[in-house]
Amino acid sequence: MSTVVLLFLTGLGLAALYFLVAAGLSLIFGLADVLNFAHGIFLAAGAYGTWWAAAHLPGAGAEGFGFLLAVAFGVLAGAVLAVLVELVLIRPLYARPIHQVLVTVGLSLAGVALLRAWWGADPLTFPRPSWTRGTTRVLGATVPNDRFLLVFAALLVLGALLLLLKRTRLGLVIRAGVEDRSMVTALGIDVRIAFTAVFAIGGAAAALAGALAGVYFGNVSPGQGTSLLIFAFIVVVIGGMGSITGSAMAAVLVGLVQQFANYYTVSGVGEASVVLLLAVLLLVRPRGLVGSIA
User: Fold this and answer.
1) Quick check: helix, strand or coil at residue 169?
2) Which candidate, 249, 294, 271, 225, places its Cα nearest to that of 36?
3) How many Cα atoms are found within 13 Å in the side-chain-facing hemisphere of 34?
4) Are residues 148 and 131 in contact, defined by beta-carbon separation less than 8 angstroms?
5) DSSP assignment letter at 127
6) pLDDT value of position 128
7) Contact status, residue 121 vs residue 221, Cβ threshold 8 Å
8) What is the Cα–Cα distance from 236 to 239, expressed in whole angstroms?
9) Cα–Cα distance for residue pair 274/137, rounded to 1 Å
10) C-alpha distances out from residue 28 to 166, 177, 293, Å
11) CB atoms inside a 10 Å sphere around CB 65
12) Helical axes 244-264 vs 224-239, angle rounded to 10°
């Protein structure tokens, strides 16, 4: 029983990471119709920004409010980078999807190369708060505390995004733009502002995932964003392109399948099981679990 509890909570922690990355991808694709393969660099900006801030930003550190300040700096770095990418590289290419793919793939590769050139290819030790390095007993299982932090952050972001989409004017514009972008433009609403806002929100969520990934893995590395991005894309497709709720459901499914399959079989089967799950779902329900922005 304790093993099942541990696997379940660890799977939820991994699912929280996948969701934080996938949420931005869902929003960006749902409104702007952009498959952003450079989303991993927003995650890397959050991870390295938090790592740098904890050591150099006045008032920041690895404990308490200092860690929150370091994470806030990392999230801001991811959001600013996302806005710059949208304004400079993506905005001129909205009518050219093939060029979008080429540019974002190239940007992703260039971002990883720059990180390796600047900070090296070796993983860097992440400044984890002492509380996250401890454990808590749950139904006989000894569970690392960082899993609870990840789940709490993911639930907070999920709630904030749903409130944004359903209770604010920007959310109304986003949902209307997904349904009929030309009609929204005809009503005199500048959808481009919503595009930029969505990129900023997506970049901030990915940057938060990067900071929390540092807590989860205990280190940061240049390729960390790319590896998480692969599973985030799977989550987006399973949940339904453009659906926040669907991404949350799919993230839980993918995280649990991966954890349980890896434990009860051999290492690597969990990843293969996730790909098999994706293939089966595409055959049975091509639009995903939800299939619309919600």
Assistant:
1) helix
2) 225
3) 32
4) no
5) -
6) 85
7) yes
8) 5
9) 29
10) 17, 11, 11
11) 10
12) 120
* Residue ranges in 120-223 assigned as alpha helix (H): 145-167, 169-179, 181-186, 191-217
Alpha-carbon dihedral angle through residues 16, 20, 22, 25, given to the nearest 10 degrees: 180
Amino acid at 247: S
Structure tokens, 178:
């997904």
Axis crossing angle, helix 39-56 with helix 224-239, rounded to the nearest 10: 130
**What tokens were used for 199?**
């990129």
Say if residues 173 and 194 touch (Cβ distance below 8 Å). yes
| The two three-digit tokens of residue 232, written as one number | 């985030």
* Sole residue written with tokens 């949420």: 23
Bridge partners, 39 (sequence order): none
Residues constituting the chain? 294
Q: Give pLDDT, residue 294.
A: 56
H or E stretch including 125? strand 124-125
Calculate helix-pair angle for 224-239, 97-119, nearest 10 degrees.
Answer: 150
Non-local (6+) Cβ contacts of 174 within 8 A are 27, 30, 31, 165, 194, 198, 293
CA distances from 226 to 31, 221, 232 (A): 23, 10, 10
Torsion, Cα 202 207 209 212, to 10 degrees, reads -160
Rounded Cα–Cα distance for residues 263 and 195 (Å): 41
Give the bridge partners for 214, in sequence order. none
Residues whose CB falls within 8 Å of the CB of residue 50, separated by 6 or more in sequence, listed in order: 70, 71, 73, 74, 126, 127, 210, 211, 214
pLDDT tens, position by position, 48-84: 999 999 888 887 777 778 888 999 999 999 999 999 9
- For residues 9 and 252, what is the distance between their CA atoms, to the nearest angstrom? 10
pLDDT category at 47 given cuts 50, 70, 90 is very high
Strands 141-144 and 219-220 come out as unpaired
